[in-house]
Amino acid sequence: MKISVIIPVYNAEKFITQAVESALQFDDVFEVILVEDQSPDNALEVCKNLSVKFSRVKLFQHPDKKNHGAGASRNLGIEKASGEFIAFLDADDYYLSNRFDAEKELFKNIETDAVYGAIGVEYYSEKAKEQYYHIYQDKLDTVYKKTNPKDVCPGQMNLRGSFGLIHLDTLTLRKSALTKADRMFDVSLRLHQDTEFTTRLSFYLNFYTGINEDAIAIRGVHENNRITKVETKQINPASTKVLYWQKLKEWAEKEKRIPLEYKTHITRMHRSFEIANANFPKKLGMIFKYLILDYPSIRSGLYNINFREGLL
């Protein structure tokens, strides 16, 4: 295999060396592409040193040298990648020694476009564990069981019950298959752009389950995790989810090949998070509106409200 590992780098000077070295342990990793995204710390200098020390490490920045977010950084990495396969790694995470074991077998099948597996968790400090254990605990995050590729897209949309998670750290893509997709990462989303990407991409590509009973990568949790900080703030989490479902709704409205069942579900989920995110007067108005038009949206919306407030 000839794998390009793409690492967006922002505020990760303490962790990026570990991430890079975990990728370089594999002979199949042809290159590690660092996309430095105007970090406020010393990450750029660390990346420069890594690119000098290791011939397989390549460093890029956005043309204007400004911050564009993880999605845009991954898009730039895909553009610069010259490997036959593409894998992703967050700058504060790392690969385990079995990371590409399943890929070596599954990609022998030319119909395999993507392979995903399970991710574990490590708390980099006791303070981080105290703050975030209630979110990640010590469990594996993955798709719960080996899944037929045709069921991966609706599964990620929770169309048929609980499904699980595809984390980018565990995803490997056949680069040539990306021509089947409508686009890469949606740069307008600062949160959930990875979930939107894997959900939308799995509609076009054949996603196969790799190793999901053991971790193949580790999510590093520390006090400055950007996503974790957002998740634990006292804000309505529906405010970020409504944008995620809005983007899927816009995509579903344009993509003529999407089954009506998918479109109906996406619209319903978007409405439900709109209800959960609205202020009280608007919430009541939407409930009365959808009471006639789409009662399941109200039911889902009320669930999201209760979940947010800790009632469920």
From TrEMBL:
Which superkingdom? Bacteria
- Please report the stretch or stretches of sequence annotated as the Glycosyltransferase 2-like domain: 4-154
User: Which Pfam families has this protein been placed in?
Assistant: Glycos_transf_2 (PF00535)
* Gene3D superfamilies referenced in this protein's UniProt entry, alphabetically: Spore Coat Polysaccharide Biosynthesis Protein SpsA, Chain A
Q: Which PANTHER family match?
A: GLYCOSYLTRANSFERASE, UDP-GLCNAC:BETAGAL BETA-1,3-N-ACETYLGLUCOSAMINYLTRANSFERASE-LIKE PROTEIN 1
UniProt name for this protein: Glycosyltransferase
